[in-house]
Design a protein that fits this description.
Chains A, B: Zn(2+) binds at residues 79, 82, 119, 122. The structure is a homodimer of 126-residue chains. With 126 residues, chain A is α+β, with helices and mostly antiparallel strands. Chain A folds into two domains: 5-68, Orthogonal Bundle (Arc Repressor Mutant, subunit A); 75-125, 2-Layer Sandwich (Dna Ligase, domain 1), CATH 3.30.1490. Chain A contains five helices and five strands. In chain A, the strands form two sheets. Chain A has a three-stranded mixed β-sheet. A two-stranded antiparallel ribbon of chain A has the order 1-2. In chain A, a hairpin with a 7-residue loop joins β1 and β2 (66-68). The longest helix of chain A has 13 residues, at 39-51. The radius of gyration of chain A is 17 Å and the shape is globular. The relative contact order of chain A is 0.14. At the A-B interface, α4 and β5 of A face α4 and β5 of B. Chain B binds a DNA duplex (25 and 25 nucleotides) through α1 and α3.
Chain lengths: 126, 126
DNA sequence: ATACATGCAAACGGTTTGCAGAATA
DNA sequence: TATTCTGCAAACCGTTTGCATGTAT
């Protein structure tokens, strides 16, 4: 992977964004510094960085994909009202893991807990 | 909601399908008996039935939506290889629920456990 | 008669891709 | 120079929608 100014700006945008941005949000952020960048380039680089393990791509049911600079195992909270995605620490889930892995005739490779609700920010405003 | 032959065939297709079909799969099934049915009608009715609670619409990250005739609370296994979706009983998850609800500053309305892996069928063939 | 349904085709939103030209190594 | 990158625009896929017609009540 060769250096590119655009990719660095994209990486930086994801790291600085407090609540995991969509590709479109990254596009908007990067455009402030690099007005001629194309959306295609943003998508290409986000996918590339995710594939290299430098970023996490979070696919959500029914919504746009999000990107996360934190690559260690953790879970996410999705606000139903504003659509923002927050990190959450669920701590030790070995009980759940053991139960899942106890299921016969299916080789478990991973699992994800998606939690939905209303975030503090939205709760205050209503 | 008024009776329609098409809707009955759609409902039946979902009930009979062993591993929760996509809209497209339902379309293919129903077309055998109702060759002129349109894909739009299939989507409209699946969404309608899901909204009435007669069906479950399962949104998967990165894949097409699936439909499930079982409407009680249960979780799902997604095969990475063939893309089929299976039902799973995780039993009592009150520990996890309590932990999730213990999170401050977020009003939890729901959560979903998505488990990925290789199904028996695919494991045998390789 | 009046609602609600259908088939069709066009629109949609998010994402990917093919291409010619530009930047990096 | 060889490779990887970019911007652009068109293609793509799953899904939704507008419309004129048809069907159930």
């Amino acid at each position: 992977m060769k250096y590119s100014r655009q990719r660095e700006l994209i990486r930086q945008a994801v790291m600085e964004h407090p609540v995991h941005p969509t590709a479109d949000a990254v596009y908007a952020m990067v455009r402030e510094r690099e007005p001629n960048i194309s959306l295609g380039t943003v998508y290409r680089n986000l996918n590339q960085l995710a594939q290299q393990g430098e970023l996490l791509k979070i696919c959500l049911p029914g919504a746009s994909d999000r990107f996360d600079a934190r690559t260690d195992a953790h879970h996410h909270l999705l606000c139903d009202r504003c659509g923002r995605l927050y990190d959450i620490e669920l701590g030790d889930l070995s009980g759940l893991e053991a139960r899942i892995r106890g299921i016969t005739d299916f080789t478990v490779t991973g699992y994800q807990v998606y939690i939905t609700g209303i975030c503090q920010n939205c709760a205050e405003k209503h």
